[in-house]
Amino acid sequence: MRNADERITKMHARAAELRRHADRTRSKIFGSISAALAVCLVFVVHQIQSAGHGIMAGQNTGSSMLSDSAGGYVLIAVIAFVAGTVITALIIKHRKR
Fold this sequence. Notes:
- By secondary structure, the protein is mostly helical.
- It has one domain.
- It is 75% helix and 0% strand.
- The protein contains 2 helices and no strands.
- The longest helix is centred in the first third of the chain and has 47 residues.
- The relative contact order is 0.08.
């Protein structure tokens, strides 16, 4: 029969092992989500460029992003910003634990 100290030590070791496993699982999930978002971003950019919605060479100014043909770029920028913000918030929350 084990004494109380040995049981507590075993319990803490098991809790640490479970935490490491959960952290590894979470990291795999975040990695998969990031890879999927990157693939989607590349696909959307390719679709926009192949559809003729690219910015013309003579219109390389910031105001050209307001034209009708640049809506996809703005949408991609907003999605990338939101995804980056969410991932950053999750990482900060995860590190605080």
